[in-house]
Amino acid sequence: MPIVKYPRATEPLWHEWDGKAQKCGLRHTVYAVNGDRYTGEWLDNLKHGKGTQVWKRTGAIYSGDWKFGKRDGYGSYSIPDPVTKEYKKVYTGWWENDQKCGYGTTFYPGGERYEGEWSSGLRSGWGRMYYQDGSIYEGQWLADQPSGQGMLRLSNENRYEGGWKDGKKHGPGKFFYLDKGQLFEGIWAADIPKCGILIDFGRDEAPAPTQYPIPKV
């Protein structure tokens, strides 16, 4: 009985090439068409796990966690100084869906710094802001503005404690004029005190007290 030999079925070459092109697991640097480059882990052709992304146009670097192609988890974002070309950290903390979310620290130009909670890329929750003029705000935030209860301490140690709304003093609050040894307690609206009482507070220790004490009622 004659033996018939059938040709062995061969996989098309493009199957092999396509398999090698699929990005999954740890990879060396992968370059995008626009020059961006990524080094790290992949899953189903998406950045997933630990990795570092460098954007060619801005030179910015993100190093940290990824989830299905987006920054998600803990990571840091840095940009090069336009003059010295040295990298300066802009944000370090938690991310979700490619935006700052959770606890993190942002470094602003001029030495300003924010430490606290974020939501959808905006300061929201509890946080502390260090301003360029030396003042510090600590308290609640909403949609990138002080809102709720918080304290603002000025560079001369005078401070306000009370309510905030849209970044302005709003509601019941106290302003301690420690340089003069006085305390104003009252109601504020859009940064303006509407009504309240002014009393002496630590006048004997104040560096620049008023000439005459406020008479008690």
Question: Care to describe what's here?
Answer:
- The radius of gyration is 29 Å and the shape is elongated.
- It is built from one helix and 15 strands.
- 4% of the residues lie in helices and 58% in strands.
- The mean pLDDT is 89.
- A 15-stranded antiparallel sheet has the order 1-2-3-4-5-6-7-8-9-10-11-12-13-14-15, with no helix packed on it.
- A hairpin with a 5-residue loop joins strand 11 (145-153) and strand 12 (159-165).
- It has one helix at residues 13-21, and strands at residues 25-31, 37-43, 46-54, 61-67, 70-80, 87-96, 99-107, 113-119, 122-130, 136-142, 145-153, 159-165, 168-177, 182-189, 192-200.
- By secondary structure, it is mainly beta.
- It has two domains: 26-93, no CATH class; 108-216, Histone H3 K4-specific methyltransferase SET7/9 N-terminal domain (Single Sheet).
Rg calc? 29 Å
Instruction: Please name the CATH topology of the largest domain.
Output: Histone H3 K4-specific methyltransferase SET7/9 N-terminal domain
What coarse outline follows from CA principal-axis ratios?
elongated
Strand content: over 45%
Organism: Cochlearius cochlearius (Boat-billed heron)
Pfam families: MORN
Protein name: MORN repeat-containing protein 3
Subcellular location: Cytoplasmic vesicle, Secretory vesicle, Acrosome
